[in-house]
Specification:
Distance between the termini: 15 Å
Structural class: mainly beta
CATH class: Mainly Beta
Shape: globular
Low-confidence stretches: 104-108
CATH architecture: Roll
Helix content: under 10%
Strand content: over 45%
Oligomer: single chain
Number of helices: 1
Length: 108
């Protein structure tokens, strides 16, 4: 099938399988700051967690955008918007669309 992350529509990104379903999540990632970059639109492969990188797969399925390791993850209350601080950049991650649960999760 494809790439999935641990995500719960009401709770956001989770660290435990018991608290989340597997969802394919489409996101937009913007680099913010003095030198903002272009928006990266795609499927979230690796969720933002402290100490790990964030991976967004482009719609063509052949390329990925990978950040440096995450230092902080901040979430805007009541919205699916996250601000990420990495080793050398800051990003805004916005969850755009939540698809149906992935097939792997439905079978278990």
């Amino acid at each position: 099938m494809g790439l999935v992350v641990l995500y719960h529509p009401r709770m956001g990104f989770c660290t435990s399988r018991r608290r989340a379903n597997f969802y394919i999540v489409n996101v937009v990632l913007w680099k913010v700051g003095q030198q903002p970059g272009k928006a990266v639109v795609g499927r979230l492969v690796k969720a933002p967690r402290r100490g790990s990188v964030v991976v967004v797969e482009f719609p063509d399925g052949l390329h990925e955008y990978v950040t440096t390791p995450v230092k902080r993850v901040l979430r805007l209350a009541g919205r699916e918007v996250y601000y990420l601080e990495t080793a050398n950049s800051r990003y805004r991650l916005e969850v755009r669309a939540e698809a149906e649960p992935a097939a792997e999760a439905q079978g278990s």
